Amino acid sequence: MKRAKESKKHSLAQKTVQSTFLSCIAFGVVALLVAMTVYTSSLTKQYITMADGIARQAKLSAVKGVDSLPYIAQISAVYGSLSDEDRQKVGTEEYRRFFSDAEIDKKGGPYDVLIHMLGGSLDYHEEIYDLYLAMYDEKTNSLYYFVDPDRNPETRLMPGDWESVPEREVQKFLSGSETDRIYDIGWMHKYGLLCTVGTPIKNEKGETVAFMLADVSMNNILNGMKGFAWRFSCAIILLTLLISWLQARRIKRRLVEPLNRITEASRNFASGNDTGDENTGHFAELDIHTGDELENLALTMANMEHRLKEYGMNLLTITAEKERISTELSLATKIQASMLPHIFPPFPERHEFDIYAVMQPAKEVGGDFYDFFLIDDDHLCLVIADVSGKGIPAALFMMISKTILQSCAMLGRSAAEILTKTNEALCSNNQVEMFVTVWLGILEISTGKLTAANAGHEYPVIRRSGGSFEIFKDKHSFAVGGMEGTRYSEYAMQLYKGDQLFLYTDGVPEANDAENNMFGMQRMLDALNQQPDVSPEELLHQVRDAVSGFVKDAEQFDDLTMLCIDYQGSQAESGASET
After folding, report:
1. For residues 528 and 502, is the Cβ–Cβ distance under 8 A?
2. Distance (Å, whole) CA 138 – CA 170
3. What whole-number distance in Å separates Cα of residue 538 and Cα of residue 544?
4. Do the Cβ atoms of 435 and 481 come closer than 8 Å?
């Protein structure tokens, strides 16, 4: 029972209703905010326009009907003559005596006429909070009054009385022109949130001497917003409930029920696979005709059901074929490894030299190879090469190249002639356009003279007895198999007792770590010189450990092949010569 309730709670229909309800609420909130913004802006503009019209009408009455400019000039002159100390007495009888010459109490005087005129306008326009005549003092950021028609004598501001106002409001009004609609909305501690609209009054010289100001209380706008928000919210809630109910019914009929049938068919299909049921019509029997993606899904699932049965029948054949290919690749790896010298020491009866080599392919098989063999009792051939490409094609080309190189060498030819003849043989029918870089050297064991040729391969590295490994920059020629008619040059160097020669492919310096940084030549030299006096086998393990420590978990990008020979002949001198 509990599980059924949980299932219903998390059903697609329930989630859809919730999602629809929340979406409608979110839409309603956004719509409410937009509507209230438009409503507030429109109502505010309406009040500002109304207050501006009232202020301009009152200004005309004050200037044309009362001739208030002399009265304004009189009050302004007295206010301007007051010291800061005198202005601080505002609201007191002593302060008001400064303005006694203005005949405030005179019946029919300018002040009496203006206060009755403004008071009448204020009574007529209930939307206006206050209508008064005043002037801004830019020096003190204050507003001093000429006429305030407040009916309450305790709160009425008398001529010359002043109060502080925001500097923003002072600058806005004093910089406005007579044709502008000048207004400012702000919070006043004494009056609350007000919108002050005003129009300037100018004297005969065109100077602004006063402002006819009308205040509009923003409480009217706020009250209107509350009522509008309440009505709009109720409408949105009712509309949301109706849409959610209708949408839930529609989704249940058009989406949830077909999905449940597809789910049941999937469950039956999975159960049939577990029990070996041969029935393949679970999805074909659904008979869903919604005319939308659900119908397409049912048809697709029926087709998938049929194909999965066919796939299951073919899976055993594919698996067997994959195992056969894996076995053949494993065999190819063993064949390639068996073609390279892999028994060390290779010549246990020869004490003039010690040699060791390794080849670690990037895939099951690779294109790098090394070789060393005795041409006769006094001549040892050394080869290290790198075929373009990787994998099985490179391995096949490697085997062909190795066989041709060894055959040419066994004919007693020089290093340059061996590469030339091998290039001719590979170029004669090289339809795959592959090539191989080769370093080949022939060591005269009795004298230590090494004659070598380099066909685009890496520089060899040599260590003289008691010294450190250094790169030997020999002469390069074009790669073997790359171009017909290539002729190869050779050079000679002298090996002395205790000298070591290190050969390698580009997989060593170009080994990359996880951030695509290369191992590089300098790290290779550092690894070689870490313990340079060890045997060739230990030396190669030393370099391979350094490469492994550098690349860490990064995938091996290229084949890694190295060869090292330690010459222990009878020569005692040290040095090197090159021809």
Report:
1. yes
2. 6
3. 10
4. yes
- Which of 485, 389, 402, 477 has its CA nearest to residue 433? 389
H-run or E-run covering 452: strand 449-455
Name which of 401, 325, 404 is nearest 364 in CA terms.
Answer: 325
Using alpha carbons only, how large is the chain's radius of gyration in Å? 51
Helix (H) or strand (E) holding 417: helix 415-427
For residues 173 and 138, give the distance between their C-alpha atoms in angstroms, rounded to a whole number. 10
- Top pLDDT among 370 and 8 is at 370
pLDDT at 578: 43
pLDDT tens-digit series, residues 289-307: 777 777 777 777 777 776 7
Give the C-alpha separation, 199 to 44, whole Å.
Answer: 18
pTM of the model: 0.49
Q: Is 358 helix (H, G, I), strand (E, B) or coil?
A: strand
User: How much is the average pLDDT of 10-25?
Assistant: 68
Cis-peptide into 346, omega within 30 deg: no
First to last CA, the chain: 96
Q: What is the mean pLDDT of residues 190-210?
A: 87
- Tens of pLDDT along 57-106? 888 888 887 878 888 999 999 999 999 999 999 988 899 888 888 778 78
State whether the Cα torsion 476-504-446-381 is positive or negative: negative
Tokens of 393: 């094609």
Rounded Cα distance between 504 and 560, Å, is: 8
Task: Supply angle C-alpha 268, 269, 275, rounded to 5.
Answer: 85
Give the per-residue pLDDT at 88: 92
Percent of the chain with pLDDT over 70: 87
Q: Is the dihedral of CA 471, 474, 477, 480 positive or negative?
A: negative
